[in-house]
Structure formats: structure tokens, C-alpha cells
Inverse folding.
């Protein structure tokens, strides 16, 4: 990224308006040519890294691409931190029209309606413009941001050639900041290999007086941490505020001493003067510290309870979270 800053002086009293305006236009044009002309090839920044221009002329400028940007939707931000009051400000973000790129929207985090926003399109670019309204002043502050959003058709968009230009006036002098963005197409994260498979079922003898829901796990990698939660939901009792489920027990087929287990009953109250009713039973199983489950283990946990009336097993659920010896984490869940 090449940064160009140009400072113009306060208009002398004896210069006419026409002469001074012409002088500023020439200086700005020369500055932009020096910063981006064919004699100075564009040097892309490190992919994904925010680009910060040091504070000069009362302003720090940072260009970045949001982490959620991708081939279907992207946002490029310019963040400003003025260290002195700004009396004039124009920000332009230029996005190259790679295949599928189209304007989505733009916004800013400046106070109220201090900035006027607009956008234009050419055959090869989208240009987002933000301009401080006449008579407004931007006080010293931090984290002021303008955002340029655009959509895509699934084709990756390389933001390293997209640019921004900021022209700011402070203390009677104007400064120009020019920069580019990191790439919006970071490589996708490497997925964590599956550490286990888990399945939920209820025993064949489950009925209105006794039920058991089991979770079977089969490990495909050594596990250093494991947590299994089974949640049994109660139903509304048509006879009034009476419990529809009750804890009976729990067990597991893990090696002795390797799994800690507990349960709790979550309750609710139907109104003043009525007893608490069990809303759900939560069974928890946790691998004890210092233990490791080898790959190829096939183990079971069981949650036992009684039910009054019809029990809807499909409302019950389980969640399994496992951590491998190399730090990978998997979470899987399901219903019975």
C-alpha cells in the first residue's frame, strides 16, 4: 500500500476565490497522480491485515475488510480517529467490479446525519462517497466508521485492489489519505475431523412407569475431555399442578472412575399457593480430569425416569461435546 498525504495552506487574503480554487485542484491532482499513477505500481498489502495510516494532520485512517465477508456478501470499512476538529471531510471507497459484484448499501457511525452518502457506478467500479455536511464539525473522537457493502454471485472477490481516499480539513489545512484493503477471500478454516459418533435411543421396555433414554458414543480419536447432557422434558398435567416426570437413576458403561455423573431437576410454579412442578430433568456425565478415552471406544450412558400419562420422547434431547488430544473440539446433538 502506498500512502500519500498532501497539505494545502490557508487561503491568503489577497488571492481571489478563482485563483485559490485552481491552485488547490492542481495540487490535489498532482498528489493523486503521484500516489497511484502508472509510474508507481500498486503494491497489495498483506492479505486480511488492517491497513493503518499514522496520525498526521489531526487524523488516523484505517482500512479493513470485515471477517464475515465472502463470495456472496462483503463489507469494506474505513475507520477514522480524528485528534483535532475536522471542518471538512470527504471519503471515497472504490470497489472493483469483479464478476458478480453489485452495490448493496452503505452506512456510517458518525453522529446523527453529519455525513451525506451517495454512490456511483462505472463500467469497472463502484464508488461509495461520504461527505461532511456544510456547517458540521467532527470533534476529536475514536472509531468513526464508514462502510461500503456489496453482493456477489459466489465468485471470490480480491479486495487488495479496492481503494479508499480521505480528504480532511483541520485547522485551516487539508490533508489527503489514500490506501487499499486486504483480501476479502481468506482461505476457509480447516474443519476439525469428527472425534466420535453419537446416537440416542430409548429402551424397548420404556413405558408410563419406567423409561430409559440412552446415548451411545463411538470414539474415532483419543479424547481428553468429554461432556454428555441428556434433557428429559415434562408435559403439562391435565389433572393440575402435578409432576409428570420423576428421576429414577442414571448409569454408564465407562471404565470405573473415569466418568462423573449428576442430575438436577428444573422446576416452575403455576401460580401463588401451588406446588413447584418439574419442568425438566437434566442428566450430566463428564470425563474425570486426567483420564483419556482411546480411539475405538464404544460406550453408553443411560438416563432413567418415570412418567405420568403419555410422554413425548421426541421432546427429549442430548448434547455431546468432545475434545481430542490435539485440541480439536466437536459438538453433536440430537433427540430421542
Amino acid at each position: 500500500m502506498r500512502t500519500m498525504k498532501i497539505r494545502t495552506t490557508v487561503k491568503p487574503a489577497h488571492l481571489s476565490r478563482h485563483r485559490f480554487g485552481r491552485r488547490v485542484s492542481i495540487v490535489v491532482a498532482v498528489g493523486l497522480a503521484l500516489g497511484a499513477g502508472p509510474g508507481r505500481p500498486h503494491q497489495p498489502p498483506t492479505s486480511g491485515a488492517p491497513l493503518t495510516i499514522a496520525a498526521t494532520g489531526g487524523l488516523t485512517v484505517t482500512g479493513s475488510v470485515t471477517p464475515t465477508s465472502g463470495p456472496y456478501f462483503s463489507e469494506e470499512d474505513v475507520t477514522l480517529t480524528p485528534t483535532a476538529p475536522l471542518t471538512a471531510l470527504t471519503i471515497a471507497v472504490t470497489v472493483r467490479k469483479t464478476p458478480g459484484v453489485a452495490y448493496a448499501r452503505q452506512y456510517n457511525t458518525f453522529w446523527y446525519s453529519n455525513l451525506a452518502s451517495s454512490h456511483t457506478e462505472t463500467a469497472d467500479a463502484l464508488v461509495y462517497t461520504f461527505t461532511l455536511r456544510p456547517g458540521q464539525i467532527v470533534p476529536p473522537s475514536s472509531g468513526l466508521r464508514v462502510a461500503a457493502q456489496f453482493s456477489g454471485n459466489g465468485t471470490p472477490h480480491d479486495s487488495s485492489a479496492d481503494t479508499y481516499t480521505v480528504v480532511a480539513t483541520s485547522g485551516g489545512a487539508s490533508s489527503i489519505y489514500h490506501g487499499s484493503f486486504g483480501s476479502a477471500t481468506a482461505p476457509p478454516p480447516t474443519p476439525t475431523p469428527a472425534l466420535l459418533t453419537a446416537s440416542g435411543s430409548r429402551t424397548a421396555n420404556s413405558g408410563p412407569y419406567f423409561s430409559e433414554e440412552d446415548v451411545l458414543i463411538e470414539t474415532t480419536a483419543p479424547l481428553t475431555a468429554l461432556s454428555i447432557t441428556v434433557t428429559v422434558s415434562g408435559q403439562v398435567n391435565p389433572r393440575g399442578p402435578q409432576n409428570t416426570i420423576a428421576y429414577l437413576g442414571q448409569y454408564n458403561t465407562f471404565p470405573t472412575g473415569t466418568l462423573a455423573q449428576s442430575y438436577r431437576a428444573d422446576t416452575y410454579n403455576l401460580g401463588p399457593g401451588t406446588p413447584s412442578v418439574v419442568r425438566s430433568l437434566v442428566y450430566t456425565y463428564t470425563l474425570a480430569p486426567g483420564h483419556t478415552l482411546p480411539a475405538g471406544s464404544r460406550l453408553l450412558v443411560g438416563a432413567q425416569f418415570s412418567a405420568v400419562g403419555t410422554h413425548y420422547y421426541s421432546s427429549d434431547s442430548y448434547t455431546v461435546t468432545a475434545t481430542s488430544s490435539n485440541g480439536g473440539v466437536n459438538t453433536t446433538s440430537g433427540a430421542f
The two ends are 57 Å apart (CA to CA).
